[in-house]
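=== RUN LOG ===
request id: a7f3
mode: sequence -> structure
chains: 1
length: 792
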Amino acid sequence: MLVIANVRERWSSFLAAFAAVTVGVALIATTLIVYDSSLSKVQSRIAAAPVIALPEQAVDENDNPKDRVPWSEGEARPLLDGLRGVPGVTDVIVDRSFYAQALLDGEPVEDEGSGEAGHGWSSSRLAPYELADGRAPKADGEVAVARSVGAAVGSTLTVNITEGRKQFLVVGTVDGPGYYFSDAFAARQHPGIGSIAFLTDPKASLGTVKQKAQSVLGDKGTVVAGDDRSELQPAYVEHKRFLGTQLITAMAALGLFTTVFVVASMLVLATGLRRREIGLLRMIGASPRQVRRMILGEAAVVGLLGAVTGCLAGVAAAPVLRDILKGLDVTPPELSLRVSAWPLITAAAIGVGVSILGAWSASRLAAKVAPIEALLESRAGGGTMGRVRWTASLTVLGLGVVLAIVTATVGAESRINMAIAATMVLIVAAALLAPVFVGPVGRVLTAPFERSGSAAPLLVRAELRVNSRRAASLAAPVIAAVGFAVLLSGMVETMAVAYPAGDAVKLQGQQIVTPAGTAGNTDEVVAANPVGKAALPTRAFVHDKDGDLAVIDALGSRDQRWAKPGQAVLGERLAAYLGVKGGDERDVRFADGTTVKLRIAQVLPDDPARGDFVVARDLVREHAPSALTDDIFVPKEAQPAKALPGTAVHDAMRYAIDDYNTDAKLTNSLASMLIAIAVGYSSIAVANSMGMAAHSRRRDFSVMKSAGGTVRQLLMFTVAETALVAGIGAALGVLVTLGPLAGMASGLSQATATDVGLHLNVSTVASVIVGSIMLAILASVFVTWRTMRREA
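=== RESULT ===
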């Protein structure tokens, strides 16, 4: 009951912690709702096929299940015959997907899923999609298209396929997305069979159908039904889901860290202002354990209230986050929100847990309050650092320094996460060590004003010396806001300079032909640029040294140094994984289900520009008819690069900048959102902490007013003290980020072979610093003024 009474009577003291928990839970709930909604789901185009047969699954280098190994036509024929005889199955359909995209007035049509929008006509029955007009395609030169394309029956439509631009007669329109060709044409575009869909009798038991079908397949594949059919997702959908997951994970992680940080600093400050009250409890017999339980209980109540409010806010905010992610093009095309129980339960549990965790330090301080404190004025703590705080702060500082150094040495894929981790640790260290800096810095900065004739500098100096831990609690949210703003904006600025410069150096003297609105370069584009690197990627399958069937990324090259018939060139890492050496022979299975024996001609040092598994381009084209070519690199001295509809030509620097900007849009948006989260959280903490401090010092103000101080003088004293404390917090926020940023810049210099310096977004940093200081001043002035009016 005491806990509930305290929360009810002292609600203003818990307002910042409640707001921080509410915002944190709302953010976590929102991200989890969007994440749950974006999980793989059954595509609408196969909704009418309740059961699907898939080939066996290969593994990656870490033995994680990956791509399915397509059946060849010969392997699939007896399986199809057996599956047609399964009781309850009315028909089985080989589902094929390949690249197809209409060109109108020479420009690619931006349609949903254009990467794998081509199908055989039989696949239209899996939705089912009905003919809106015309008939089904029967010959190679015929196509049925979605009505949204706007092509009338009887018209001629230019469709980009792997070969290039082809003219097709539109013989029908359908009420769903995609381009539907004759089954024979689709079989030549995508000869490997990756899935066999079943149409079943409505009265048939799907469990029985699945069991009988599995017995037909044996160990040659897997039969899936229900939600398991979601595995049949195009690669571009999985890529978008991956990008979106990375973004919302970063948002949730920063929200969690900032919530803990803000809640902890607010509860420590609130507890420090209650020393007299806690001393009274100790005087009437409350044990340290009971005091600790009271503080933790109050935090649990505040956390529960914040969690409930945050969950409601999270549900309301989920559509906003979904629209933001859609604008960044990092969501699956068929994303519809669903509010399940587990995201809300998880977010609420985190909110309560974070609140209790944040109160742990405050409860330890409260338990140390002696009964004699009841006779003293309420203060936020003296200026000394206890042994535990010294130990913790120096340990955390050491860890942060180590992480900042490691940032310069880790791989490029881990450098950003390591820099963020180092900054988080250093922010905590700065907050713990802030009492050490507040007094001396305050003394230095107020020294020039000692002879000004005003008592304000002396009062500010004395306050910071006597109550440096309270001042440190006020500076903590500013440290976090400025630290994250400097780090995130600095990372974006530094990478924006480093990566394009490094790539431009590597590509000097090259012209690059890139897709422009299409999924890749067609053979027509490759033929128009017969000189230069034109890598043709595909997936291949080969047994590793342990005998497991592994999936590898293979590249078809026309470079005569490695593109020799019947041979393959491997990188050292992949060769070690497969357990092969130069001169060995291995069976390699390609996308059409055909197995080819290749001799390992060379094992060379790893080179991302070359590829880990390189074979002749003609070999890949033979077994992967629907594969599209990557960017084509043409030396300037050889011949001018030629662009066709759906492509563009860039020089080295333009290509490097455009290539970086492809990901920079997402990076910049992520950085902006994370800065907004950090600054928003800190704003809550700054406003409330300044208000709490001013309210707790109303007796001080009364004394100074009795001594002749005017309202203007008291407000000026408040402004000076607040600006000084916030300025110290801003300075510490900048300092703790310089190490991780310098480490990242050093690592980028090594990775890009260019001289990379540390770059900061001065306008963003200045805006956050000035905004944090001004917010702190406004909050303290407002509460001080109201307090003095009330006392008057």
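=== NOTES ===
The chain has 20 helices and 25 strands.
Residues 402-506+652-792 form one domain.
=== END ===
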